[in-house]
Write a structure and sequence with these properties.
The chain is an alpha/beta fold and about 575 residues long. It contains 17 helices and 20 strands. The chain is globular, with a radius of gyration of 27 Å.
């Protein structure tokens, strides 16, 4: 009541939340036919959105507004060096972007807006650009703009420059693509790279990967140069490569971890999104994996419906696994709720850290030395307040929930480094990992095996690479390797307590043609904890003999006989 319309802007970005809002609002109009629903963008696939908003009737009306009548020239400046290698965006490419920006500033009027995919590339390109401009004695201020900066620093960039002041070069992430207007910009230099969420289902790892941007994204970026006057857009690719870019960006629903969305859909009453008018349905494997993760923490039942605990977790503004860790930790040790909230706030907005140490990153946040400290502190305080207010509801929601809510042992004292790892492991049990091989003297990374079965690398220098057990808060794929970007140490006892739901014991039996040998193997997920000799039992023994027979050449008839007579 009291709402007459819903407007969704920048729908071309195909953010998961925007897709869900549009679908839910479109369904809501069956009950509220007078509700106005508007989807807006400068580069939208208008017919497709019009069909969605039209529902079972004719497509919605498409309204257009002419673009600003300023001229925009588009140029191409391909790099003579690779854009990416096995470690990510190359430093040589960042240098090329800096050089192209300096040349553009020398040849064209106005401020420059430079697009790069992430903070690491922004910092490197900004450093190279400052060096190039100094060598040319150019009076240009180099600024950075990305979501990790404190609000006051972002505001500084977004304020108009003083009349007669220095020209500016703003090196930015995609946050400046459409959400913000940077005054004074008449030059855009575009790396044509973007960082997008991807779920690697085979490895059980989700995170951001660097890919070539889509055409609609590049068009949005270029348009920043001609909002107030004639401008120029310089794309750091070959002109022939333009046609190879995707027309529209990959919808987040098709590539991201869908666990939070799966809970939203369950609470909406449409498990897995079945029957909901989504622009793109969630991939079957990804939504199934997300539903399994929710079932493991007791957030959904065996048909995908939201449980009382699931509805409670949906009230916490965080990934449901992080929300569950917060509430479970607060319930186990009420005095430690502030500490648990600090850790979960960091998990929701992972801080960047070169050495991948999550405890060190949280220490920086507490001391106010990290750029995102102010935002993190506000979020931690909000989560702590919410955890206290929901403590009674959590106890009621988990009463009688069984194995899904295995009791959480008391947290270590505040300030104990174990708290960070333990709370992280409560959230992401499948990312608990045991060391497979140590870091080497020559800079070789330590190798850990996740409970999900994936091997991850942890670079030396973090101070935790020699831990026997860790939990990986954030991982990313570079080529065929999976790197731990943030991790915390664990004791074995904490790993087993936090990952209790993943503990299992099974019999491993082999047959060598003469003897059966059986061992009782205890595992945490795919991590072997112990193996002891055991007497073979009938089922595993049959399977072991059948596998041995199958490995012998020309024994297909024996296999059939074995399956029929012995099996």
């Amino acid at each position: 009541e009291g709402t007459s319309g819903v407007i969704c802007d920048e729908v071309h970005e195909r953010a998961l939340d925007t897709d869900l809002v549009l679908a839910m609002a479109a369904e809501l109009r069956e009950l509220r036919p007078e509700l106005a629903l508007v989807a807006m963008s400068a580069t939208v696939d208008a017919p497709r959105f019009a069909a969605l908003l039209g529902g079972d009737g004719p497509p919605a009306q498409v309204l257009t507004s002419p673009a600003t009548p300023h001229e925009l020239r588009t140029m191409y400046a391909p790099a003579p060096v690779p854009r990416q290698d096995g470690r990510g965006v190359t430093d040589e490419y960042c240098r090329h972007i800096a050089q192209a920006t300096a040349e553009a500033l020398a040849e064209h009027p106005g401020d420059a807006l430079v697009f790069l995919p992430g903070v690491r590339e922004i910092e490197r390109a900004a450093g190279h650009l400052e060096a190039v401009l100094r060598s040319r004695c150019a009076d240009v201020e180099v600024l950075q703009l990305h979501g990790s900066l404190p609000a006051r620093e972002q505001d500084r960039v977004l304020r108009p420059a003083e009349p007669g002041g220095r020209r500016r070069a703003i090196v930015a992430s995609s946050v400046a693509e459409s959400s913000l207007t940077v005054p004074g910009v008449r030059i855009v230099v575009d790396s044509c790279l973007s960082r997008e969420p991807r779920l690697d289902a085979a490895r059980g790892v989700s995170g951001l990967v660097t890919v070539s941007c889509s055409q609609d994204s590049a068009i949005q970026r270029a348009g920043r140069a001609a909002r107030t006057a004639d401008g120029v857009a310089i794309r750091a690719i070959a002109e022939a490569d333009w046609s190879r870019l995707r027309t529209h960006r990959t919808p987040e629903i098709a590539a991201a971890d869908l666990t939070p969305a799966a809970l939203d859909l369950a609470c909406w009453g449409m498990p897995r999104g079945e029957g909901l008018p989504l622009l793109d349905p969630p991939p079957r494997n990804a939504i199934g994996r997300a539903e399994s993760a929710l079932f493991a923490i007791g957030a959904v039942d065996d048909v995908g419906g939201a449980t009382p605990l699931g509805r409670l977790l949906a009230r916490v503004p965080a990934d449901p696994r992080i929300a569950r860790a917060l509430l479970a930790a607060a319930a186990s040790t009420p005095a430690a709720v502030d500490t648990a909230a600090e850790v979960t706030a960091a998990l929701g907005d992972p801080p960047r850290r070169q050495d991948a140490s999550l405890p060190a990153a949280i220490d920086e946040l507490r001391a106010g030395r990290h750029p995102g400290a102010e935002r993190w502190r506000r979020e931690a305080e909000r989560l702590a307040k919410l955890a206290r207010s929901l403590s009674g509801d959590y106890a009621a929601a988990t009463a009688g929930a069984g194995a899904h809510t295995h009791p959480v042992p008391a947290l270590p004292p505040k300030g104990d480094v174990r708290v960070t790892g333990f709370v992280t492991a409560l959230a992401f049990g499948e990312r608990i990992a045991r060391r497979v091989s140590p870091a080497g003297d020559s800079g070789r990374s330590a190798v850990f095996k996740l409970a999900s079965g994936t091997q991850v690398l942890l670079a030396p220098g973090s101070g935790i690479e020699n831990s026997e057990w860790i939990v990986v808060a954030e991982a990313g794929r570079v080529g065929e390797r999976v790197l731990a970007r943030l991790a915390a140490p664990l004791t074995e006892a904490d790993a087993l307590a936090a990952g209790h739901a993943l503990l299992r014991e099974d019999e491993s039996t082999i047959f060598d043609g003469e003897r059966l040998q059986a061992r009782l193997v205890r595992r945490l997920g795919e991590i072997e904890l112990s193996s002891t000799p055991a007497r073979p039992t009938q089922g595993p023994a049959r399977r072991a003999i059948a596998e041995w027979i199958g490995a012998q050449d020309g024994n297909s008839g024996v296999i059939d006989w074995f399956d029929t007579v012995v099996g």
